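Annex B.
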Amino acid sequence: MNFAGEIASLGEIDIAPLQAAVAALDEARWHDDETRQKLFEAHASTNTIKLVFDADYRHHAPTVHPAFGEFAPVIDPILHTVRAHYARTLRQRRWIARHGAGYFVRVILTRLQPGGQITPHADGGYSLSRCHRIHVPVHSNDDCRFQVGDTQVAMKPGAIWEINNRLVHAVSNEGATARVHLILDFVQPGESVLDRDGTLVA
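Aspartyl/asparaginyl beta-hydroxylase domain-containing protein: predicted structure tokens.
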């Protein structure tokens, strides 16, 4: 979703429980599904575990995969924190009262190996332009850089970031360890945003 900026901090959260759950994953789990890598060339060098995801990138009634239940105990506090962030102002609460509660249309774990890159790209399509794209680093290193527009950051585990995914963004992992992020796409029904394509409504 477009906003007035390139990247925004949403705070921090204890990531240790999710770190432990991810570290315990068998390597084969990262190769169960390559849908996202086939859909988007920019993500060809990543691995993904789908928790809530649809190949058609639908904006309503997303598919909840078995892995969501597996990870629910350790990601529920993160989901709660993100929901609370988008209900913190009176204006936001009025939108919720009028249009209904927000929901996560996509929840995935994605891994970028040492030396890997996510090539420069800007997200498009109906849903990706109307949702808040949230990144929560689970495992990372100081030599993994996330670029959004003209801003470059080394995202630390436990930080919560929203990126302006309508701008060109890219990732380069020049460190010696894999980078794993929890990526959340949050939709607030009725929310309007001024986009390069005009005013869009979630």
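The chain has a mean pLDDT of 95. The longest strand covers residues 103-112. Further annotation is deferred to the next reporting cycle.
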